[in-house]
Amino acid sequence: MKKITLGLVFYFAILSVWAQGSLTGKVVDAKTGEVLVGASVWTEKLGRGSVTDLNGVFSLNKLPEGEVELRVSYLGFEPVQRKITLPFSGELLIQMVSREFLTEEFIVSATRASGSTPTTFHTITKEEIAKRNLGQDIPILLNFTPSVVTHSDAGAGVGYTGLRIRGTDQTRINVTVNGIPLNDAESHGVFWVNMPDFASSVENIQIQRGVGTSTNGAATFGASLNFQTDTRRDEAYAELDNGFGSFNTWRNTVKAGTGLLNNRFAVDARLSSITSDGYVDRAFSDLKSWFVSAGYYGEKHVVKLVTFSGKEQTYQSWWGLPEEKLENDRTWNYYTYDNETDNYQQDHYQLLYTGKLGSNWKTNLSLHYTYGRGYYEQFREDDDFESYGLDPVIIGNETIESTDIIRRRWLDNDFYGVVASANYISTDGKLDFIFGGGANRYDGDHFGEIIWARIAGATNIRDRYYDNNAVKDDRNIYAKATYEVSPGFNLFGDLQLRGISYTFFGVNDDRRIVDGSENYTFFNPKFGFSYEKGNRTWYASYAVANREPTRSDFTDNPITEVPRPERLNNIEAGLRAKSGNFTYNANFYFMDYKDQLILTGQINDVGAYIRENVASSYRAGIELDGAYRLSNTWTLGGNIAFSQNKIREFTEYIDDYSTEDFQQESFKYTNTDIAFSPNVVGSAIIEFKPVKNLSLNWLSKYVGRQYLDNTANEERSLDAFFTNDLRISYAATPRFFKGLEVNLLINNIFNELYEPNGYTFSYFVPGESSGRELITENFYYPQAGTNFLLGLRMKF
């Protein structure tokens, strides 16, 4: 009886397996016949799915015999529902009809480069971002793009992070989100910690190196980053994206969308939380964010409301690591007070409209408002009462002039305005003309509070020891055009007029009264050409950018000695090409600066270091990047940049404490390297796909020596470093999932000890033999050794 029972079970199991069939098909555009890559194929009742490959082909296995209902969807096309009876012989052809919708691309296209634009750029797609996104900040996700060097204060890519492109820091890199300025109006910086997990809501990123095309907001003085947030999805969806990793790093993200409702409306939302202890001692991060968009999509008009917010608390690790601790105590943190934290929240509101007028015109209008507020808290040991505008405390016969204090330094600001553009494309397609601009206002309060004092005297909690306000208006208009003179040969012109009004008043954090007002008008022309033949495009351009000083340049200098604005003349020339499985880009650049602002060691009347103009400096280099697909299994990619970054002449000032009367001694330098500008930056990526759905990626990064100041002194520098990462990705479509992805990232697999960022200062003290001795103190931001991040993304 047992043998009969087992036999029957075995028999029916074989029948069951035998009855399971497979289905292969191809998805194409019904109008053009082109294959559609990435189309989603779903069995409605069975909960099985697939995605079309590079040939537009999908396959579904282990399907039962009988009738199967398929649903096929692809962005911009009408969904297709088809009933198939299995077994099915041959290959199923599914033709999809495109929807008549106005795309959202024009929201950002006015400030972006296209294939015929004669400038140097690189676009990163949503798929590429998703592969890298395991909770680290945006600069770390861009680490392997050309000429980029990234760094993290906490050492693990979460919290305060930054990047430099061609050696230029974030205060000189213009950043926009949907064409709306993101840079802080006063410092010109971008603080990515205020936008945790923003990459999860980004459709694509375009990086323009050099001056690039005219944009809104801060001057492009080395590069620009242009973000487009998530575009419409036609099908309803939900995603859970969770991960964990070294240093107790956790990421939890929930995304959902309605798909297209009533063929016109769509709502998308995201909620994220990221926490990490950090590599550096106590350098924790507690980050939260959300994103919501709601849109109306018509044949000729799109109206979209985009809102997103980020809230962060990070323990400070801004001090860095003294040089003597590099060998044995790399996680050391200067700060020990338990609430030495930075606390900030920033809310963004964007109302976006794009419309098509007739057959030749497209328009875009965006209203925006950003509200930011927060503080960082500090414990200050034995601070002078005088520094806070307080009188000494007299207790009995003792006069006390200093005490321990806990203070908070606040920012409370509003940023709002409008950006707009109109695009005309001639009927014959030869002329592409864009006219646009924007008007934005920043209103920011800066103030400091005393929240505790060991000896309080006449102070009250939250007494403000400084309080000042700044208002900045930034207006610009531009006109840009591309004209096809002959087949493949295009001329490009771009003219921008930018006006700035900046007013500030009140008491600064060093207790000085800072009242002043400055106005600037800048003219920024750009010209160039491109020539396209076959799969090659040659281009060359000349562009000018002007940049006003930052807030600290105004407040730290006497108002009668405000530094001059900076000017950049930029030449770009290059080739973009594709030949079979080989795609490559090569370009030369020359960036000539006039009156570039740098730290020289010069101090103001209260001992604070100020920046000064240097008459002439430049960056010149060659950038190469490309990818080669060896086979369906192997792909090689990489980039490398060789450059020279020089200041032709400047004067350094060093504090001298070797005599009774403090003074500064000056030293002249010629033809020295610009700080934080390595002569070589390169990366390489090797992708291996041993089986379907499994991808192994080896990622390498090399950064040459960087100098901490502008003296080209190796004793004040960061050593070159070479890091290697391993990324393992597996994607599948198991039952009842539209997608399941597992990503493992092992960073710094060979445990390289390296520091991509730091600072230095020097001074003279009394010496035994020579009468004085030069002391140089270097501080570094060490990055983590071998560490990992593991993520699981589930799509429904």
Give an overview of the whole structure.
The structure is a single chain. It contains five helices and 44 strands. It is mainly β and 796 residues long. A hairpin with a 5-residue loop joins strand 2 and strand 3. The longest helix is centred in the first third of the chain and has 18 residues, at 2-19. The protein is globular, with a radius of gyration of 29 Å. The two termini are 45 Å apart.
Within CATH, the superfamily of the largest domain carries the name: TonB-dependent receptor, beta-barrel domain
Shape: globular
Helix coverage percent? under 10%
Report the sheet with the most strands, covering strand number, pairing sense and barrel closure: 22 strands, antiparallel, barrel
Strand content: over 45%
Query: What's the total number of strands?
Result: 44
Reported CATH architecture of the largest domain: Beta Barrel
Spans of 5+ residues with little confidence (pLDDT < 50)? 4-19
> What's the rounded overall pLDDT mean?
91
Our count of domains comes out at 3
CATH topology call of the largest domain: Maltoporin, Chain A
Name the CATH class of the largest domain: Mainly Beta
Question: What's this model, at a glance?
Answer:
With 796 residues, the protein is mostly beta strands.
